[in-house]
Please model this.
Amino acid sequence: MAEQHTPRSLIVSLYGAYGRTPGGGGEPMPVAELIRLLAAVGVDAPSVRSSVSRLKRRGLLVAARTPDGAAGYALSDDAHQLLDDGDRRIYEHPAPQLSEGWVLAVFSVPESERAKRHVLRSRLARLGFGSAAPGVWIAPARLYEETRHTLERLQLAPYVDLFRAEHLGFAATEEAAARWWDLTGIAKQHEQFLDLHEPVLRAWVARGEEAPDPEQAYRDYLLALDSWRRLPYADPGLPAELLPADWPGVRSAEVFAGLHARLRDAGAEFVRGDSG
Model:
């Protein structure tokens, strides 16, 4: 099964994995280094340059000089917030409880600004919200902070009210959740991730204690991260009692966690350029 990794998405994954330091810092990445690192996953230099330009226009990257004066790009403040919010989704896999409740997003957009209605719907869907009714979207309560940050960043907050809630009926919550989210489609995305990346983890496990090759570790990790980081947004992380018994999301989270533990630090050697 082929997998699509766009240059722009791979650049975001690269900065998310290796372009930050604890506390929100991070030196600019030189253009030459971006080209080298993306070449390792099959992206040519013109594609890197055009994708960087698009990310700059979107306000996610800003031109900056490295400490030695080379031209490079750093994450914008908005991009740092976006990636920090994403970390909780991508790397933390809590066992959600039904007792945590829900966050409701209720919005109303004037007809004169109806284009923003589409933006709101698509953004809420990308955050993992399900549609409970026209203009009423629902997600697990733990997504509140990230939702607030996102709506503020996109200047959509004036059109939305956020509420914490619990489901009181009339349909059983399990039945309602199956209406609010496309669980069959989400399960298929988990299965596709497993088809592609579980064999990679098995191959690394079979090597035992052998030290990983930094370039191969970097390549396998970045591709897995680029695939995985979409899944915690498509899948809002519903409590187990609302999901089918054979839900593949648990296993896909375990596979990504295994690849992260084995490969992330070894890949960092290749990023630093000290693997040769």
Remarks:
- The chain has a mean pLDDT of 89.
- Strands lie at 29-30, 61-65, 71-75, 102-107, 130-133, 136-140, 160-165.
